[in-house]
Amino acid sequence: MSTVSTTSTPTVSSPAASGRDAAWTLGVVCTAVFMLLLDVTIVAVALADMRSDLSASLPSLQWVVDAYTLTLAGLLLTAATLGDRIGRKRVFVAGLALFTVSSLACALAADATVLDAFRAIQGIGAALLFGTAVPLLGAAFPTPAGRARAIGVFGATLAGATAIGPLVGGALVSGPGWRWIFLINVPIGVLTLLACLRLRESRTPRVQPADWPGTFLLTAGLFTLLLALIRGNDAGWTSPAIVGLLVATVALLGGFVARELAADHPMLDLRMFARPAFSGVSLSVAAIAGTLVAATYYIALYLQNGVGLTPFETGVRVLPLTVASFVAAPVTAVLLRRTGTAAPNVVALVLAGSGLLLAARVDATAPWAVLVPGFVVAGVGLGIGSAASITAALASVEPDRAGMATGSVNTARQVGTAAGVAALGALFQHTATARAGSALAALPLPAPMRTALADGVGSGGGRLVADALPASAGVDAHAAVTTAAVGATADALATVLTVGGVTALALAAVCAVLLWPRAS
What is the pTM of this model? Predict the structure, then answer.
């Protein structure tokens, strides 16, 4: 997820690293990035408990994810440039320190607003880390063979963190509680910071300056877009507030495009997107993140508040997806050698979409296992796409654009995740609220109570909303509300999975058109 530099640009560094020092650098970088990625996947199984403990609405839960990915996406490319200019070790250590401190603050958050704010700060730390992780490895392993081995270990670390994240998260949330998904970062972060003392500094002379105006325009434009998507159901999609946010989004992102095209040293060279192959791989990465990855957050919410599983049981149930991804990633190298870069990226998106449609068979009467075939198919697509995207990005540009290309693809992944969580969340909330309202209409309950219950289902409460009924309502009313809530939650998830699957397949066709003419 960090930028990769394979250019011949000279690097100024401390005296040549020994094999032991290089291995130490690899260990430190992989430990830090493993912690960060574990934290991302852990959050999925913690949302239900956060909702109950913090009395959080669904929009607040969406910001737990999106506040992090927003700042990560907006600052990733700038972080890489800062590392090149002022020192990669310096920026890496600053990012690790910021991530560790903000993790502690997240764990101590008294309400959802405070948690969301510190998640945004955590994303800044993550951007500083991701933006300098692989460049640090490039400086520590100067030979092509050594660098290839280091990147291989780094890639396995990414896959491993993604694979075990839900299981570890489920164990922590079911045991000491959701706050420990953040607290666990503190001792790991402190020990890793101490290990950083042995890292060697490196930088690139005469590197371009950081593009702060571009960074601001991109981050602000993404923020207004996400805010509009998340608030749309509550405020009304045609309300002045939402229309104003969307107009601001167009203005800010339009300003970003104009800035990058005119700048002597752009953060993102938009001319790369004139190449169909590069546009295709960027679209594929963003599409998988915005459909499959984003949907997993609502799958976890359904398994806990719909089916009634514990966080640990939820982590176990999603293992077919993560394990399939982990197994498929190394096989992708064979596909790339035999078919080139186009087919694996398109196939990955087709599998992701097909898996989502298979999983969309879920309903309130079906066992959770109905999701498993879709998990496996989608997981294979996720693994192939994760492994093939960087290779395809590098193949589509000149060597001196390698760092920007990989950074751009990783930024696209974060943007896709953030937008997908917001858009699918709006769909989930609307569908669950409407279905619950219809199902509850026949119950002999006061209208304000029915509305409050339907809103609770829309916020992801599932079967837990029945607990809000007064004892005087009776056992039958409690059972009826539970049935209605579970049915509405299942219908909302099925809608999310269907829309996500259809979107992924439609975008796969677009990617095929873009990628195949430039297949390598």
Answer: 0.87
